[in-house]
Amino acid sequence: MTGNSDKAPPKDYSITGDAQNRVFGLFNAIAIIATTFGNGIIPEIQATVAAPVTGKMFRGLCLCYAVVVTTFFSVAISGYWAVGNQAQGTLLSNFMVDGAAVIPEWLLLITQLFTLLQLSAVGVVYLQPTNEVLEGLFSDAKQGQYAARNVAPRLASRTAAVALATTVAAMVPFFGDMNSLIGAFGFLPLDFAVPAVFYNVTFKPSKRGAVFWLNTAIAVVFSALAVIASVAAVRQIALDAKTYKLFANV
User: What residue numbers bound the domain in which 116 lies?
Assistant: First the structure.
């Protein structure tokens, strides 16, 4: 709908930037993709909570990656067709041109509501370690989980954590850059290098076999990729910091 709107800006599909920026941009994109597909590690971890692990893990990962591939690739391909090389780092930004919506306002409202719903679900998952620490500090284990003594500090601590995270995100609006940094430092090693190393250490395949050297090659390649992508992410943050201001509306 955005691509056919008469309010949309002219579309240009050429690749912009010099060779250096393109190379660093490539590694930034790889790290962002790693962050996107790294969500699959959530059902993988959850599958280890109770037996049987193998079957549940395989089914959970298949479902997760099927949803991720279908949704994210469809959005990426259609978004590039609709906007071209002027595509913004956040989806909703592409629906606004000079402060005016290029799609029906009701559709924009629904998109914002679904975005809020998704962020709420993601926040619940990724803030669990923080919530556990806060509840350990402020809750009373001798009283019930739903006792007023525990519900009040739980509500206050979780609200404060979300408010703090939201404030920091608004202060430093480097959404794409932060995704790249998280993917480079976290998801690339965690999803690719670490499992290969753990497999070799745990099952000790023969060093004369293909499995050992394949895992070693995967670990080395993705470790190097993580280092290069980390440099690219930090470089991009440094470049964007020259133009962005605190609480900038980007």
Answer: 102-168
- Residue 33 in any domain: the answer is no
Q: Measuring CA to CA, how many Å separate 169 from each of 39, 178, 202, 246?
A: 20, 10, 40, 10
149 vs 152: CA distance, rounded Å: 6
pLDDT higher for 61 or 48?
61
This prediction has a pTM of: 0.73
Looking at the DSSP bridge assignments, the partners of residue 101 are: 96
- Asked if residue 180 belongs to a domain, the reply is no
The domain tally of the chain equals: 1
In angstroms, the CA 224 to CA 188 distance is: 10
Residue 6 lies inside a defined structural domain of this protein: no
Residue 202: the pLDDT is 87
Contacts of 69 (CB under 8 A, 6+ apart): none
The model's pLDDT over 225-243, given as tens digits with 9 standing for 90+, comes to: 999 999 999 999 888 888 8
